[in-house]
Amino acid sequence: MKEALRKAAGTLIAALGAVVLVSLFLDLVPGDPIDAILGEQARETDRASLRQALHLDDPLASRLWYFARDAATLELRTSVPPFQDRVFERIADALPNTALLACVSLLVALLLAFPLGVLGASRPGGKVDAAASGFAVLGAALPRIWLGPVLILVFAIWLDWLPVSGLEEPAGLVLPAITLGTALAAFLARMIRASVLDAVGEDYVRTAKAKGLPGHVVLLKHALRNAMLPVLTVLGLQLGALLGGAVVTEKVFNYPGMGTLLLQAIDRRDYNMVRACVLTFTLAYVAVNLLTDIAYAWVDPRVRGRK
Amino acid sequence: MIRHLALALLALVCLSACTRAERAEHRLVVAIEAPPETLDRRMALSASAMRVAQLVTPGLTRIDASGAAIPDLAESFAAADERTWRFRLREGLSFSDGQPLAARDVVATWRSVLDPATGSPHRGGYAYLERVEAEDDRTIVFHLRTPFGAFPVDASLGILPARLVGPELREALRRAPIGAGPYVVEKWEDEEQLLLAPNPRYHAGAPALPLEIRTVRDETTRVLELRKGRVDVLLNAVSAALLPALREEDRLRVTVGPGAGVSYLMFNLDDPLLGRREVREAIALALDREAIARFKFKGAARVADTLLRPEHWAFAPDTARWPHDPARAKALLDAAGLRDPDGDGPGVRFRLNFKTSTDRFRRSVALVMAAQLAEVGIGVDVAPLEWGTFMGDVKRGNFQLATLKLTPVIDPDVLRLAFHADSIPAEANAWGGMNRMRYRNAQVDALLERGRAAADPAARAQAYAEVQRIVARDLPALPLVHEDAVGVIARDVVGVDVDPQGSLFSLAAARRAP
Fold first, then answer.
1. Which of A70, B3, B52, B304 sits a CA distance of 20 to 30 A from B177?
2. Contact yes or no for A174 and B218 at CB 8 A
3. In sequence order, what E strands does chain A have?
């Protein structure tokens, strides 16, 4: 109970901190949001009235208070004319899409990384290991802004198997998931390989081998499970980051998720939307961390016993 | 494991092949860069919202390719005097729902914009309006507080049915306004896709094809969708660098026409060096704008002599020109006592800072200009700045040279924003003016005011021609190039024109060639 309270308080502080920081940063960004919203040919009276409507001249504290009040009642609306969109409705539309993309990308990454990592670790320095290392370097080095369009060119234009962009059909998920998953897989494969290699050197693995267990059982059952802890930590962090919207990938694939929403909010200088997106990211991150903690306990019985 | 993955991917591919939404072959698909925030023209701020709203709710006038207002829902309009404009509606107009469109609808729409309860961001812009009245079913009279010759341009505001303009219906109007335009809103559920159906009651005849407006934010993706045939039309949504490659495509047609955007080089006249006319003239002569248009804009631009394009109704053809002439530039600088210490060597006569945005294209143009200026011994330090910082510096006069693009140039009243002394950004005008060069010329101010007040287009054209002539001589800014409007259109689509202002209006005339 006490633990739960502490977690809740921590979450609240994190959310509050994130919103305050972002608001501060938005203030520090040079340039006049009025220019971005009205354009440079706008007339003075319109500029002045919009400035007032956006509370731009109010102190930061009162702007934060307006935000907190409207956010708490879910009444928060976009801060650019025509001021009509409810921010949280837009987020509720975008977040499931981003969550779906994050999970599928993670799945793609795991499906690629596990075999590569484990095979690499089973014969360090062998051909498979070299190939896996090559893939890891390549995957980490290819920027998404390049990989995305190349995948579109090959699979959507030349081969004509998949749609170019959008999420009007489930297949629209494939290319963005591969784009995101590849870089992540490269990183995870290295991680898994190193982790498994560490575990293979441990006493209990020698014991298992001494018992006469076949190599693959030792590797998969004894070494791999113990090698999972650091991998889980990384997975949790990466999932949290993915939930923050993969801005570049979402833009390239015109994917209707949080990244697109945030990018557009920044473009329009829609401060309420930017703050609400950041708030959502923070909460998502905290939630994923919680899930990671639970997963720890499931993988490692020692964590369960500890209080 | 790998085999499972391959199978899963294969399954997904098959699934996509089966479920792929059948694109209605007859539907015309246009991709835009940013979604409209509303379809209610009274509330629209972004260019994309205004363009899309115009397709559904046109106004009394619309803007033609020369930047002039021409009748749309109105059959004719005229100024009774400088403060009174009378508009006559076409006969037999009706909204897309079948209700007749009469003068009271026009009056109600305009009054709603002026009503603070509506919350239109354009209310302040129409502060010159005193009242709007219907004289009879087809005649509307606008009474102005102050004379405003560009009023017919403002009269392009979209007209809504009188019964729908109340603030309580704002939400409904935002998503599906009713108008008398070529199209009716059919479906707009998410930002990415807007479906418009032809309006059979449109006064100029219903369009042949339904329209789908898709938002595709990434430029590369827009072009790839076009290549794949999922998009038919891109209007002003590709950069010049891609044009050579797109011209190679068999199934695409690249159409380049005059555009309403002009880029210009600003001189800070408060700077001791740039305050000297001969220095500005030398810079103008040292720049090879022809080469910039050909090589940087890939031919999709023309050298500009004034901020108005040659096709514009108020363009003055007889202004001072500044052709590329490095020898004369050097002579001018020598005569001004700004000698090159080592002739053609690396030493410079003087150094200037040149601010630009971080936009890669704009930066690369600035670098070319810097290289051209180096040829005559002017050292230029190009400083690309993040947009907000850049605009902040430029407004506050913290620059020597800077480039900007003015778009769209519709009414020549925009020259007042650029060159009137009252348009020098300051606290008083909320840092809003565009005279960042800090140009002060009482004669120009008087002409700009005359052009703004006069109702007669000929009198206006005369005043603005004089402004263009004086400004081309005084050179507070050097117009660089008129940037062309670019359309990339599937070959089987005919009838689409590329509008200088970026209007989507010509889509209503599109047909598919058999």
1. A70
2. no
3. none
Gap between the Cα atoms of B170 and B164, Å rounded = 8
Instruction: Measure A299 CA to nearest chain B CA, in Å.
Output: 22
Q: Which of B7, B45, B115, B501 to mutate to test the interface with A (most CBs of A within 10 A)?
A: B45
Contact yes or no for B16 and A42 at CB 8 A: no
* Exposed e or buried b per residue across B381-404, where buried means at least 16 C-beta atoms within 10 angstroms of its C-beta: ebbbbeebbbbbbbbebebbbbbb
Instruction: Give the closest residue to A142 by CA, choosing from A92, A187, A101, A99.
Output: A187
State mean pLDDT over A220-245: 79
Residues in Cβ contact with B88 at an 8 Å cutoff, skipping those fewer than 6 apart: B74, B75, B76, B77, B138, B139
Q: What is the pLDDT of residue B15?
A: 45
Higher pLDDT, B60 or B237: B60
CA dihedral sign, ordered B52, B58, B59, B64: positive
In Å, the largest CA–CA distance within chain B is 82
Chain B 203-262, residues with CB within 8 Å of chain A CB atoms: 214-218, 220-221, 224-225, 227-228, 230
Axis-axis angle for helices A224-243, A174-200 (nearest 10):
150
Torsion-angle region of A39 (φ positive above 0: left; ψ -120 to 50: alpha; else: beta): left
Task: Respond yes or no on whether ipTM tops 0.85.
Answer: no
DSSP string across B455-468 = -SHHHHHHHHHHHH
| Distance between CA atoms of residues A110 and A112, nearest Å | 5
Q: Is A202 within 8 Å of A226 (Cβ atoms)? A: yes
Residue B152 in this model has a pLDDT that exceeds 90: yes
Per-residue pLDDT tens over the stretch B235-245? 988 888 888 88
Q: How many helices (H) and strands (E) does chain B have?
A: 15, 19
How far apart are alpha carbons A178 and A186 in whole angstroms?
12
Output the pTM of the full model: 0.82
Q: What is the pLDDT of residues B366-389, one digit of tens each?
A: 999 999 999 999 999 999 998 888
Residue reference for tokens 């050197």: A201
pLDDT value at residue B14: 45
Please, what are the domains in chain B? Answer: 30-217 (3.40.190.10), 259-484 (3.10.105.10)
The pLDDT of B252-263, averaged and rounded, is 93
Residue B158 carries which DSSP code? B
Spatial neighbors of B335 by CB under 8 A, at least 6 apart, are B278
Is A253–B221 a contact, with Cβ atoms under 8 angstroms apart?
yes
Nearest CA to CA, how far is A204 from chain B (Å)?
Answer: 27
Minimum-distance CB partner of A170 among B19, B38, B124: B19
CA B12 to chain centre: 43
- Residues A134-160 as b/e (b if ≥16 CB within 10 A, e otherwise) read ebbeebeebebeebbbebbeebbbeee
Neighbours of A274 (CB within 10 A): 23
Task: Count the alpha carbons within 13 Å of A186 in the hemisphere toward its beta carbon.
Answer: 16
